[in-house]
Amino acid sequence: MATEIDxxxxxxxxxxxxxxxxxxxGVEPLKExxxxxxxxxxxxxxAMKELRRERLNHSNPxxxxxxxxxxxxxxxxxxxKILSTIMEGREARGIQMxxxxxxxxxGSKKDLSDSVTVDKLMAWEEDAIKRRDIMHxxxxxxxxxxxxxxxxxxxxxxxxxxxxxxTTSGSGDELVPTIxxxxxxxxxxxxxxxxxxxxxVPMPSNPFDIPTQFGDTNWYPISxxxxxxxxxxxxxxxxxxxxxxxxxxxxxxxxxxxxIIALVPELRRNLVRNAAEVIDDVLLNADQTATNNINxxxxxxxxxxxxxxxxxxxxxxxxxxxxxxxxSQSNNHNAGVSADMFNEIMAxxxxxxxxxRRGDVVFISDVRTxxxxxxxxxxETVDVAGARATLSTGEILNVYGxxxxxxxxxxIADADGKITSAGNAAxxxxxxxxxxxxxxxxxxxxxxxxxxxxxxxxxxxxxxxxRIALQERSGTRSSATHTALQYNITGV
Length: 492
Fold this sequence. Notes:
By secondary structure, the chain is of the alpha+beta class. It folds into 2 domains: about 130 residues, no CATH class; about 270 residues, no CATH class. About 40% of the residues lie in helices and about 20% in strands. The strands form 4 sheets. Strands 7-14-11-8-10-9 form a 6-stranded mixed beta sheet. A 4-stranded mixed beta sheet has the order 1-12-13-4. The protein has a two-stranded antiparallel sheet with strand order 2-3. A hairpin with a 2-residue loop joins strand 9 and strand 10. It starts with a helix and ends with a strand.
């Protein structure tokens, strides 16, 4: 792994030297060169992510629940759920499942349940936290993640206790779905970048009201034997309203049982990755405006527009607040990357830039801005930045003590901070900063799977869906100051 990291660092250093030579000689890189450099930078980011995944896959396998033996040995509860959904859906619509397959699915679920121990449940929690730290080093929201992981572990232990106490057959039926939900929760939280830093709230109803903090109280001097004055504190609430997103994956009737078994692991990876991408996408970019959407400026999109319909799900995302709702919270940087661009935009948060606990404030940028920021002089060399110098590490974890994230779902924008539908006139970067304690996201329904057979097409389609909500705590976006945006960052 060290050799691969060295190679990536050489790519970054070589790119930096090339650009500096051009600037020194007063030569503007050709457009073709700029596109080639952009491609290299994105490949470097992808490679760094894959290195983290490789390290993750070798971390504490004892904390994972997998079928120990048989045709689907190595499958976890989510893999079994996908396989069962496909096979049972096909059987219900006329394509019979063999008796061996039916018995195998039932037996694998029981084997998985029987292999679970209290020690493994404790190891799952430890493994979840370790995996989170590997995939998102230095990222805010670690305490929220630890609390959620503890909650899932407690739920699995309760189901495990019921399974042990039960004298009926199929006693693991309560445990396996609980493990399945916990596995899916961990998968999505590890693959997303934005979701883990926000406070997640379960939604027992839709819409769901959340009480926010009490208003300030008044304080008065007191005198002996004199009734002190009191304050009726103001109260407020925000309402989470979940909206649904769905996708479908078709399977031809010609796929036999063995082929579907081989397909499940790859399908699972794709489903989790796609779900994570679209969750981060809508949290950042959702915009209810069909015409001149912040992601499709100059065009009109609809809820059937492929690749863009998700932005219209029914609420506005984080970027919409500083870019549209309260434009005083955005700044036209109109310059290249610099250390001051972080400080400048953080200052717009005012009191929200001084959180009660470290980690509430985060920076989020597009990938190109993040990689280009590696060459900022204040971050680059050991004599200035110390052991975390970017020339040595190849990444920036913190800026001014605040975690710095970058997301593929934060796209390169035009000079006005919006993404032009027909193509940006000038590709520029963006830098978002927010106090994460002022946002809430909720799931009314976790990711679910169902199938539908289409005889006319000779195929079965597996549908994956979830219902998600996002709301900022003040309830008035037009005056909220907990989120800010730096746009028109040039040279990325």
